Amino acid sequence: MDRAARSMGELSGAGLTDAHDHHHPRPTSAVELRARALEALLAERGLVSTDAIDAVVELYENDVGPQNGAKVVARAWVDGAYRARLLSDSNRAIAELGFGGAEGDNMVVVANGPTVHNMVVCTLCSCYPWPVLGLPPTWYKSPPYRARAVSEPRAVLREFGVELSKDVEIRVWDSSAEVRYLVLPMRPDATQGWSEDRLAAIVTRDCMIGTALPSALEPAMS
Amino acid sequence: MSSGGADLATVDGALGADSPLPRDNGELVFDEPWQGRALGMGVVAIDRAGAPWPDFRRHLASAIAARVTSDAESPATAYYSAWLDALEALLAERGLLD
Questions:
Q1: Hey, which bits of A88-208 come out as E strands?
Q2: What pTM did the predictor assign?
Q3: B36 → closest Cβ in A55, A57, A131
Q4: What residues make up the domain containing A154?
Q5: Residues A138 and A29 in one domain
């Protein structure tokens, strides 16, 4: 998974090194000493262990993912009334499943159809609906994607392996701090009768950014 | 959960909107390594102590309110300092630091 510069794993590693070649040993702050002392005390009382803390740190690093968004999409695929609510009041419909909050507050879900394909970009920076999609992929934050998604979306999609017929209109949505978009892809025809969980497993992050289409081929590890 | 602690979504839910974990576009923000460990330590200790998250949330809100903020301190440093205060208060209340 993509790891951003300030992820926990990197920070919890060995000593701090700055961007240059030389080290600047940082004086240990009072609060850091206090944190260490508390950890030592709790370890002595059996309330924590280094391994357990490491496990949580690692879990949190990998925890954020697009699973929440996939559940939203799968629900919309099986429940027409939910789909209608999701498209008319996205925040509320997403909150129905227990997701949302903070920066995901102003969500707008846009639906793909036979003649419309949606894709999402943030041209200014990397605004992203993280409560439903987790952390943005590196390419989403890259200047080429941010520029080309607007100027030549069809070519960008082709590079992602999505070949759309000429009569499909491509709509590009520019996310911002105020509004963050999520794409509701079309349900593959070959998934009739599938359970919601099984459907959610084929809804990838990229499907919900609009740079991929869901496939009825199930992932090997699910 | 068997590995000893709530998952991140559970922690987010338990903390609610009044004292959420510091984030930047979804990414947890730690300005120094001890802050990530403080988060992990809290999650593990709360789980092993069998303490209810609403109790911790209450202590965290008080700790944040009680802290004298300093301009020299980053938001994440202030938050995780309060987090330590809250964890100590919670465990002390349950007689685990005696």
A1: 107-111, 116-121, 169-174, 180-184
A2: 0.61
A3: A57
A4: 67-209
A5: no
